[in-house]
Design a protein that fits this description.
Elements lengths: L6 H13 L5 H15 L8 E6 L3 H12 L4 E4 L15 H6 L1 H20 L14 H25 L3 E3 L1 E7 L2 E6 L4 E11 L3 E3 L7 H4 L1 E2 H4 L9 E4 L3 H12 L4 E4 L10 H13 L3 E3 L2 E8 L5 E7 L5 E7 L1 E4 L3 E3 L32 E3 L11 H16 L13 E3 L4 E6 L2 H8 L3 E7 L16 E7 L6 E8 L2 H13 L4 H6 L10 H4 L18
Parallel strand pairs: 1-2, 1-6, 2-3, 6-17, 8-15, 9-10, 9-15, 10-11
Antiparallel strand pairs: 4-5, 5-6, 7-16, 12-13, 13-14, 18-19, 19-22, 20-21, 21-22
Helix pairs in contact: 3-11, 5-6, 5-9
Bound molecules: flavin-adenine dinucleotide (FAD) and NADP nicotinamide-adenine-dinucleotide phosphate.
Length: about 525
């Protein structure tokens, strides 16, 4: 029997052939059909059932789940160093240069804030407290490396072959694997998953690539960044600006247009205002035009207004961090050899249920056109795809109502529609409830609560289904996660208002919300127990 794969599958195949004492070709063919039709495990014309190009969030999830279901799987992962020379291990963006190191640095910055606040709660703390960048960097990198190691162990345990090489298509089922030293080998697979994620963009201005850094460098930067210019006002820009400022560095953010485009703009404005109150400076509607060294550790940045199209100023920084978006790593894949269509402008791939237009070639994660670029999205899509490919499942990925949080110093979590989009979609059928609130933990240290605000968007028509929830405050990610589950289950405004809160928490504010924007009533802080 020509069936290769996991031990379970191989022993099932052996049993089958033993029972059928006469192993005729007819029987072999019918077994292969059973395998390929019902489990996705085809006859072994290829070395692997699945080859995954890209060992990040989506690729690893799909590889591990597929192996669990009996598929023979290989994962290729390769990190091209940044212009500064930074590189990292297996696990992709989230683990190495994204969510995880970002959350740890965010936490380090929140701890600084907490230490300062602790004085008002009676803690005796020296006047000068500061964060040692090199110790923080080491601690963060130690954790990242431990995750890299665990990932490799997991792959081994699950019998997934890990190949540390850059993959590209030679043919739809034939993958070239180029290792660091330039050696190349070829492997074949019945199914191929593209999960190569993306890398940060640099602007096309003199000095940017040689002198600037990106989020790929910041978490392992050998020196404290000190006075920093962050170019870009998306998730990455504002999050990096937030933690760097919280760690005590002088930070300026340069915006080409608005902060957090695509998010609810009332919430984005509150986030920006909070950052400004913390001392972060903003340069509006400008883009950099040139960068040059003007002394040891000094970078002069020239910039111009996007409106007047003329150079308005120059400023000197120690570090310039570009956070101007990311592009998918599809350029080197030679997609044309597999006949995979992609958008030449964005480099992204359109899929239907994660299947590309090329038979047997799939894609998940940040490479997908028009899908949220978030780790849990890539993971869920990868897992569900594996189940559809190898266990006959028909469960599809639902990309709607994905909750997200921007980890700025005061966090912003949301799920569902922004007020702008909801208004467009539902016009007069939209009700917006809102409130400012005062977290109990903000009272003793007398922290500014001007940006502590939440709103709920629901339909006017019964059953008044909720279509958006927005929350700014401490631990916004933790707050919004449970409400995302409620929204997935179709929660209505009445059900939310019938929910008994947990007191004293900030999440309970969602259950106390009663003022509509339409009423014109003052949404400012109500008493804690009203
Ligand atoms: P990736 O995780 O990027 O993995 C792709 C892998 O493929 C990489 O290891 C890459 O080196 C490798 N590769 C590329 N080309 C090849 C090739 N030809 N051959 C072999 N290997 C290749 N998301 C959240 O949900 N929450 C957050 O808080 C969050 N914070 C973030 C913070 C930052 C600074 C950044 C940049 C991103 C953040 N994200 C966050 C987004 C999240 O990291 C991504 O959505 C997620 O990692 C995408 O997973 P992926 O599998 O598509 O790709
Ligand atoms: P982004 O959200 O697309 O933001 C890019 C920013 O750069 C925008 O402010 C944009 O301005 C600006 N910009 C683009 N080109 C520019 C140029 N040439 N010059 C100056 N400014 C320019 O990209 P990102 O911040 O890199 O994030 C990428 C993705 O990673 C996000 O979509 C998100 O899904 C994921 N991510 C998630 C988290 C999280 O979950 N907490 C954190 C980080 C990243 P305009 O608005 O004018 O275009």
């Amino acid at each position: 029997m020509n069936v290769i794969g996991s031990s379970t599958r191989t022993s099932a195949a052996c049993l089958f052939s033993k029972i059928l004492t006469s192993p005729r070709a007819r029987i072999k063919i019918s077994w292969d059909i059973v395998c390929s039709k019902h489990s996705g495990l085809g006859s072994r014309q290829y070395e692997y059932d699945l080859v995954v190009i890209g060992g990040g969030s989506g690729g690893l999830a799909c590889a591990k789940e597929s192996a669990l279901l009996g598929a023979k799987v290989a994962v290729l992962d390769f990190v091209t160093p940044t212009p500064l020379g930074t590189y990292w291990g297996i696990g992709g963006t989230c683990v190495n240069v994204g969510c995880i190191p970002k959350k740890l640095m965010h936490q380090a910055s929140l701890l600084g804030e907490a230490v300062r606040e602790a004085r008002s709660f009676g803690w005796q703390i020296p006047d000068k407290v500061w964060c040692d960048w090199s110790r923080l960097r080491e601690a963060v990198q130690d954790h990242v490396k431990s995750v890299n190691w665990v990932t490799r162990v997991q792959l081994k345990e699950k019998k997934v072959t890990y190949i540390n090489a850059r993959g590209y298509f030679k043919e739809p089922h034939v993958i070239g694997c180029v290792s660091k030293d330039g050696k190349e080998k070829t492997i074949t697979a019945e199914k191929v998953l593209i999960a190569v994620g993306g890398r940060p963009n640099y602007p096309q201005i003199p000095g940017a690539v040689d002198l600037g850094i990106t989020s790929d460098d910041i978490f392992s930067l050998k020196y404290p960044p000190e006075k920093t210019l962050v170019v870009g006002g998306g998730y990455v820009g504002l999050e990096c600006a937030g933690f760097l400022s919280g760690l005590g560095f002088d930070v300026t953010v340069m915006l080409r247009s608005i902060a957090l485009r695509g998010f609810d703009q009332q919430m984005a404005t509150l986030i920006r205002e909070d950052m400004e109150r913390r001392g972060i400076k903003f340069i509006d509607e400008c883009i950099p035009t040139n960068m040059q060294k003007v002394g040891k550790g000094k970078l002069e940045v020239s910039f111009k207004s996007v409106k007047e199209k003329q150079e308005v100023s120059k400023a000197v920084f120690k570090t310039v961090l570009f956070a101007i978006g990311r592009k998918p790593a599809t350029e080197q894949l030679q997609l044309q050899n597999a006949g995979v269509d992609y958008n030449p402008e964005t480099g992204k791939i359109s899929v239907t249920d994660e299947a590309t237009n090329s038979n047997g070639v799939y894609a998940v994660g940040d490479v997908l056109e028009g899908k949220p670029e978030l780790t849990p999205v890539a993971i869920q899509a990868g897992k569900l795809l594996a189940r559809r490919l190898f266990s006959g499942s028909n469960k599809r990925m639902d990309y709607s109502n994905v909750a997200t949080t921007v980890f700025t110093p005061i966090e912003y979590g949301c799920v569902g529609l922004s007020e702008e989009v909801a208004k467009k979609e539902f016009s007069d059928n939209l009700e917006v409830y809102h409130a400012f609130y005062k977290p109990t933990e903000f009272t003793v240290p007398q922290k500014d609560t001007s940006s502590c605000y939440l709103k709920v968007l629901c339909l006017m028509k019964e059953p008044r289904t909720i279509v958006g929830m927005h929350f700014i405050g401490p631990q916004a990610g933790e707050v919004i996660q449970g409400f995302a589950a409620a929204m997935k289950a179709g929660i209505t405004m009445e059900q939310l208002q019938d929910t008994i809160g947990i007191h004293p928490t900030t999440a309970e504010e969602f259950t106390r919300i009663f003022i509509t924007k339409r009423s014109g009533l003052d949404p400012s802080v109500q008493s804690c127990c009203s």
